[in-house]
Amino acid sequence: MKSSSQNFTKITLEDFPNLKKNKIGIVVSEWNKDITSNLLNGAQEKLIEFGIKNENIKISWVPGSFELVYGCKELSKQNLDAIIAIGCVIKGETDHYDFICNAVSNGIMQLNISCSIPVIFCVLTDHNKNQSLDRSGGKLGNKGAEAAIAALKMISFK
Predict the structure, then answer these.
(1) How far is CA 41 from the centre of its chain?
(2) Tens of pLDDT along 76-119?
(3) Does 96 participate in catalysis according to the annotation?
(4) Interior CA angle at 91 toward 88 and 95, to 5°?
């Protein structure tokens, strides 16, 4: 999602008129919590801005990005309209980054195939912490807010 060139976040309340009864789950990784908390805040603020009631946002924490898939699978059993998976994987010196990024993206894709509700991918996969900071409320916006918009669009799609 590249919001700067696609005006992804330029939507209005009229685009989503009746969201008061919708329920959203958010699964958040504790790893790189400074980044994931920023993404969570961006998602929550955007959901509330568009009419989702705070009490209809269920937040669950998991240890790391790898565990997001299981957390989302468990939340999908609840009465929710969409789930947002929030994580941050920053490249290090080993291949661990590649394995985690592949596993998480494939796992969330599989959930979208098998679940009856959309699971939104909001996992930053950056080469350094500055890139993650830029994408979690810094100079490149907040990908958590963009994930919230994607969730709302997918609820409307359904």
Answers:
(1) 11
(2) 999 999 999 999 999 988 888 989 999 999 999 999 999 999 99
(3) yes
(4) 115
Count CB-CB contacts under 10 A for residue 147.
26
- For the chain, the structural domain boundaries read 34-157
pTM exceeding 0.85: yes
- Rg value, the chain, Cα: 15
Domain formed by 34-157, architecture: 3-Layer(aba) Sandwich (3.40)
| Nearest C-alpha neighbor of 123 from the set 80, 78, 60, 64 | 64
- The alpha carbon of 56 is separated from its chain's Cα centroid by a whole number of angstroms, namely 16
Q: In sequence order, what are the residues at sequence separation of 6 or more whose Cβ sits closer than 8 angstroms to the Cβ of residue 16?
A: 50, 51, 152, 155, 156
d(CA 130, CA 134): 6
Q: Tell me which of 21, 33, 96, 129 is the catalytic residue.
A: 96
Helix (H) or strand (E) holding 83, with range, is: strand 82-90
